[in-house]
């Protein structure tokens, strides 16, 4: 997995690199190149990697879910699989009664 030129690392890149390396260690059953991309939280593609088998890419996808990334439905920059960080928005969900003075 390589960082694209003029891009900052996506969040948790060290763990992403480890997941990539682990997935690449799987033996290939049906050799077929699968290009994957990882975006930063702003949606810009920041890193690209290539697997030699769909099985490797599937393991990477599972690991990315565990790292807090989700797979986009559409491809980006010729990547078959593209991952973006989950976006959590803080909302005011406390019930009013918890905010009342004691």
Task: Pick out its properties.
single chain; disordered C terminus; Ubiquitin-like (UB roll); five-stranded mixed beta sheet; alpha+beta
Write structural notes for this entry.
With 102 residues, this protein is an alpha+beta fold. It has a single domain (2-86), classed as Roll (Ubiquitin-like (UB roll)), CATH 3.10.20. The protein is built from three helices and five strands. Strands 1-3-2-5-4 form a five-stranded mixed sheet, with helices on one face. Helix 1 (13-24) packs antiparallel against helix 2.
- Assign a percent range to the helix content: 25-40%
Mean pLDDT: 85
Q: Report the count of strand segments.
A: 5
CATH architecture: Roll
Percent strand equals 15-25%
Low-confidence stretches: 88-102
Largest sheet: 5 strands, mixed
Order of helices and strands: EHEEHEEH
CATH topology: Ubiquitin-like (UB roll)
Report the C-alpha radius of gyration, rounded: 17 Å
Sheet/helix structural class? alpha+beta
Q: Give the CA-CA distance, first to last residue.
A: 54 Å
Please give the domain count. Answer: 1
Question: Order of strands across the widest beta sheet?
Answer: 1-3-2-5-4
Described by the principal axes of the CA atoms, the overall outline is globular
Number of helices: 3
CATH class categorisation? Alpha Beta
Summarize the entry for a quick read.
The chain has 102 residues and is of the alpha+beta class. The chain is 28% helix and 23% strand.
Q: What order do the helices and strands come in, and which of them pair?
A:
Blueprint: E1 2-3, H1 13-24, E2 34-39, E3 45-51, H2 54-66, E4 69-71, E5 81-85, H3 96-99
Parallel strand pairs: 2-5
Antiparallel strand pairs: 1-3, 2-3, 4-5
Helix pairs in contact: 1-2
